[in-house]
Amino acid sequence: MEQAAEWYAVLTCVVIGLSHLTRPQAWVEVFAALHRLGQPGAFANAAMNLVQGAAFVATHRVGTGPTVVLTLLGYLLLLKGTLYFLFPDVALRSMAKTGSGNGREFIIGGIVLLAIAGVIGYGLWS
User: Fold this and answer.
1) Which of 3, 6, 45, 76 has its CA 20 to 30 A from that of 61?
2) pLDDT in tens, 40-53
């Protein structure tokens, strides 16, 4: 089960990371649209984080080696999703900022996601 979670994480981090790098303005538009929805948009954002985080936490609780990055990512996403569900105004403030920028945050995020994929992939193949 842990290895399946690692493969899932590598694949999704690579695809979303590349999308962040190549289409940052589209991501700006996504978050602007979610922000315009108000609390329903905040809940949609929360769900994206909570579901991914809960899946990682449920299937991957590793405390050593390179793949511990996935466990940490899972807990961070779970925390973010929970925070956004309980305090949607926090999500709305974040989406207002990222939904009105030039996409720089998404480029940085894409680099981080590709780095995470690399670390987890290294753990898979070592």
Assistant:
1) 45
2) 999 999 999 999 99
